[in-house]
Amino acid sequence: MKKILAASCLAVFACTMMCLSNTPPVWAQTAPVDSQITVKIDKTRYNTGDIMIVSGSVKNVVSQIPLTLQILDPTNNLVHVEQILVTADGRFSLPLKIEGPLWRLPGQYTLIAQYGFKHVSATVQFDFEQKDIPVEGVFNVKDMSSGQNFDLNYTITGGTVKSIVIDPQDISLVVHLDAQYPGMLHLEIPRLLLDAKKTGNADESFLIFVDDDEVTSFQEEASDSQYRILDIPLVSGDSKIEIIGTQVVPEFGNISGMMFVLSVLLAIFLVPKIKTYQIHI
């Protein structure tokens, strides 16, 4: 009797194991191993402000499972992420604008399209070029000696201007900046603030120093009677530009000249009087 009972229990156990082996686990139904995904983009090179068209397809669609798109920069930092739902036949397409503060580094970027699980993914790479977006501004520069104020217009690419000050003693204009990328600094300097002249009142070239090193690669555009216009190239890390002229706030130069002339005239007038007075004594 015991043998019959043991045999019956063994048979039941065997049948139970067979049933369990034929029943797939729940997770296997939602993550099929043979899922495939494709992804493509419309170009291989993008710039700030461009629109990237991302498209592709998923082979096995699972209802309400989103497609995740991630973009990594050259150092594998995440610069963009979003999720969308694919169509019933597995297709997807969307425009993606290249913008935002995280898009900083030029180089090769990676777009990853992932559907549900990590093994259901595809990647595509593209090049990103940091676009030089000009930043315009105006600094009110005050000459401390005279108390006069001058508006100095500037445009910079690749960085930011922190301050612009005049140095009357060195007859120079000092620009403090933060150059993060190679770029250009465009300055419209009022002649009444700073100028450089040769003998005969012809324009003389400025002396320009970037971080205390003299540079000659700058260019002067067509200046007029009111402004000297300079374009100074920048490299990453530049922090100080000094522009040296021959005269600063020339109103004081004119006053000094008048004082000199008056002094000479007074000397010419008084010296004979002094001599005459001495003779009569």
Automatic annotation (TrEMBL):
<protein>
    <recommendedName>
        <fullName>PEFG-CTERM sorting domain-containing protein</fullName>
    </recommendedName>
</protein>
<keyword id="KW-1133">Transmembrane helix</keyword>
<keyword id="KW-0472">Membrane</keyword>
<feature type="transmembrane region" description="Helical">
    <location>
        <begin position="252"/>
        <end position="271"/>
    </location>
</feature>
<keyword id="KW-0812">Transmembrane</keyword>
